[in-house]
Amino acid sequence: MKETITDLRVLRTKESIRDALVELMEEKGFEAIKVKDITTRAKINRGTFYSHYQDKYDLMNKCEEEIMKELAGLVLKNVPNIIASPQEDTSSATTPFSVLVSIFKYLDQNRRFMKAVLGPKGDVSFQAKLKKFVWKTIFESNNHPIIKKENLLVPGEFLVSYVASAHIGVIQQWLNSEREESPEEMAHILINLTINGPFYAAGLKK
């Protein structure tokens, strides 16, 4: 019971620190934040902060790693089924559509952090980390890569850069528009853009 109480306290402390980080990013930008700003906003002492993180960069890295780990979990466990499923099928829980819905729901749950970190006052290196994440997801997903390098028509790094940049741009647009579209609507939008292509989405190609 004592360990459970301690774990809950640690979890709440980390949540307070992360909330403080997000608020400060929104107000003054990540580069201008000092550890003292975080501890003051989170109402903790410096010793408590340093018992969990080395500095603000370690805090940011761990927050970002948690996000990417969760996203990877949503994708990688369904890779074999995604490949085997018809792209337009929306009935199964493991189709591209359903997996995208899960991803957008997760982004929605973490909307404030994602909006802050991907915004102009956030971490400029996060997009590069996301691109690396996309590379691993597409080409290095255990024994079931989504795309085989030998089948590529263009160099893999250009494909990943195009796909990742486009997806990040769509996510940023959604977050900045205060999520007027539902996760289901966003999944349809991204499938049309990614699978059918921008010309099809623009009505220029049937």
Question: What report would you give on this structure?
Answer:
Helices cover 69% and strands 0% of the residues. By secondary structure, it is an all-alpha fold. It is elongated. The protein has two domains: 1-53, Homeodomain-like (Arc Repressor Mutant, subunit A, Orthogonal Bundle); 56-201, Tetracycline Repressor, domain 2 (Orthogonal Bundle). The model is unreliable at 86-94 (pLDDT under 50).
Outline of this structure?
Helix content is 69%, strand content 0%.
**Tally of contiguous helical segments:** 11
Total domain count: 2
**And the CATH topology of the largest domain?**
Tetracycline Repressor, domain 2
Stretches where pLDDT is under 50 for at least 5 consecutive residues are 86-94
**Class by SSE composition:** mainly alpha
Shape-level CATH architecture of the largest domain: Orthogonal Bundle
Using only CA atoms, what is the Rg? Answer: 19 Å
Largest sheet: none
Shape assignment: elongated
Tags for this model:
206 residues; mainly alpha; Tetracycline Repressor, domain 2
List the helices and strands and how they pair.
Blueprint: H1 2-28, H2 35-42, H3 46-50, H4 56-76, H5 79-84, H6 96-109, H7 111-118, H8 126-139, H9 156-176, H10 183-196, H11 198-201
Helix pairs in contact: 1-2, 1-7, 4-6, 4-8, 6-10, 8-9
